[in-house]
Design goal:
Blueprint (H helix, E strand, L loop, with lengths): L5 E4 L2 E4 L3 E2 L16 H13 L4 E3 L8 H10 L7 E6 L1 E5 L2 E4 L3 H15 L4 E6 L8 H13 L3 E7 L3 H10 L2 E7 L8 H9 L3 E5 L9 H9 L4 H12 L3 E3 L6 H8 L9
Parallel strand pairs: 3-4, 4-5, 5-8, 8-9, 9-10, 10-11, 11-12
Antiparallel strand pairs: 1-2, 6-7
Helix pairs in contact: 1-2, 3-4, 4-5
Amino acid sequence: MTTKYTFKLGDSEINRIGFGTMRATTGAGIWGDTPNRKNAIAVIRKAIENGVNFIDTADAYGPYTSELLVQEAVAPFKNEVVVATKGGFIKYQPGAVIPNGHPYYLRTALEGSLKRLQKETIDLYFLHKVDPNIPIEESIGALAQFQQEGKIKHIGVSNVTVAQLERAQSTAQIDAVQNAFNYNDRRFGDVVKKSGELDMAFIAHTPVSRNNWEDSTLTIAGKSNMTTSQLSLRWLLDYAPHIISIPGTSSKDHLMENLRSYQLESGI
């Protein structure tokens, strides 16, 4: 049964604090493998053991190394976890990416992700970034074709405007959108609202506010014995019932601190 702490994605009930792997599974500049692969796997597994059932990755993270690590980490829990990945964003050097939404490239990207994740079907596959040189209808049309072939279960779009989301939705069934969103960064508040109206999941990446906290907010956090991470995640839980946040960490202690956000009251 759906609760205020879960969101229904197809036949999967997703807990609303997931795990983002961009930094936890890669090296500096989101490039190469993590310097402590064993620890990264252990943290992801501890997250799953404590109720996290949504793991987010992408072929651009590393590139490729994150998907390989995620596959190893979730292998003992493969039927318990929704794994989302993304394609259409090429990582060609540390800190540098370029979008490629051409249908031919997206097929190549998807096939690579399927192989690395050792899956026949990707649970949730995002167009990572809209390619300004390719109409979004062509990119999403390709994902719809892959879905018909049984290689994608749910289609998502990432880093989009409301107009782009609407164009994507007119081409195929979009079940999730992923944009940056947190207490101090509400640029995509209109996308949050639109996705809610469409009853689709909004995956909040960069969910933890780190700068520009108001003094009054920090006072609330202190009085509530909350960290700023907990305050950020609690605020997202309260903001809208379709938001799923994906904080990442390389620390088991920080992971458990984040998950305690469910039990706290933010007061903001």
